[in-house]
Model the fold of this input.
Amino acid sequence: MTTTRFAPSPTGYIHVGNLRTALMNYLIARKAGGTFILRIDDTDPERSKQEYVDAIQQDLEWLGLTWDKIERQSDRLDSYHAAADKLREMGRFYECFETPVELDLKRKKQLNMGKPPVYDRAALALSDDEKAALRAERGNGHWRFKLDQTRINWTDGVLGDISIDAASVSDPVLIRGDGQFLYTLASVVDDTEMGVTHVVRGSDHVTNTATQIQMIEALGGTVPTFAHHSLLTGPQGESLSKRLGTLALRDLREAGVEPMALLSLMARLGSSQPVELRHSIDDIAEGFDIDQFGSAPTKFDVNDLYPLTGRLLGEMDFTAVADDVASAGVPTDQAEAFWSVIRENITTRKDIAGWQDLFENGAEPVIDDEDKEFVTQALSLLPDAPFDGDTWGNWTKAVKEATGRKGRGLFMPLRKALTGQSHGPDMSAVMPFLKTIKARG
Done:
C-alpha cells in the first residue's frame, strides 16, 4: 500500500513552503487510495511547543488535508535507541568529541587545501582510554553514522537519476552530545517501521536523502521512492526565507484566502500543467502527477491567490456563505438575493460586509468635475426609495432624454455617484438594495 507522511517540527506555524511538501505527499497517498501520516517531529523538547502542534492540525484541517493517523516522535524514543544500538553493533556508529570550533577549523583547513570540507573521521582512531578521558573533560560525545564511501544512486521522482559520492559527504551526526536524536535518524527509523513508500520533500534535502538511503539499508528497511520538489522563491526570484513568517497558513486564512484557491495553486505551481481552479481535494488528487514538476526554483506570488479566491466565491452556492451573509447583517428574507447580486464582485468573504454597508448606508460618491452638473440634474430625476428592478432602466432613460447623454458617458457617472465604484454588479440588480443615496446630500 502507498504510504506517505508529512513531518513538521512544532517550533512555529506552518507556511506555504511546508504546505507544498504536505500537499504533494497527501495527494500521492489519496490518488493511490493509500495512507497519509501526520508525524510530529518533536524530538527537540526545548523548541517544540504544544501550541504549534495544535496549530499544525488546525491548519491542515482548514485545508481539508485529513490524516489517517498521527504519530509523535517524542513517543518513539525507544525505537531510536534500539536503532542506535543496532548500528553500534554493526560498527556503523561512532562517538566523536570535537567542539564546533574545532570542526570549523578543520573545515577551513580542508578548504584551504582544496579538499571537500568533510569530517576526517579522526574519532575512529581514538582508544577507549582516550574516549574516557574526553568524556571526563567534555561530557558525552556526539554520534555519527559511518558511511560506506561508495556512490549512492537513486531515481528521483522530480530530479531524475541522482548519483552522489558518499566520500564527498560528512558522516552525519545522528545523536547530539546531550542525547537528543536528530531528524536524520528519527526519520529513517520512522519511515522504515511505518512502511513509508514515498517521500516528497524540498530539494535542499538531496544530500540528506543520500545518507538516509545508506542508513535505511543498514537497518534492513526498504528504500522509499524519493522526490525532491523545487524551492519556492518570491515573484522576482528572491528568497522567501525572510518572508515566510508573513506567509503562514493562518495568516492567509485570516486574510480571507479560500482553502481550495490555495490548494489549486499549490498543486500545480512549478509543474508543466496550468493552474486550474478545483472545487474538491478529490479533483485535485485525480489530476496530480509528481512527474510533471520541474527542478527550477518556483516563483510564488501571494497576490495570485486572490483572483482564484474571488472566482471560487463567485461560483459558490448561497448555502456555502449563508453564515457570512447573516453576520454582515443582511436580513434573512433578502440574504439569498443579496448573494446572487454581489457574488461575482468580491475578492474574499470579508468584502460581503462592505457591500451590505454600501447598500444600507450609502457609498461616498465619486463624481468627476466635468460630471458634477450632469449628476446633479440626474439625481433630481431619481425617485425616492424604495427602488425596484425597473428603477435603473426607467431613471437612465429619463436622464438620457433630459440631458442627451448616452452609453458610457451616461451610465458610468451615475454608477460612480451611487456606489462610489467604477465597476460592480448590474445596476438594475443593485437598485432594489440601495436604501441611502449619499450623493443627494
Observations:
- The longest strand covers residues 35-40.
- The radius of gyration is 31 Å.
- The longest helix spans residues 16-31.
- The CA atoms of residues 13 and 55 lie 7 Å apart.
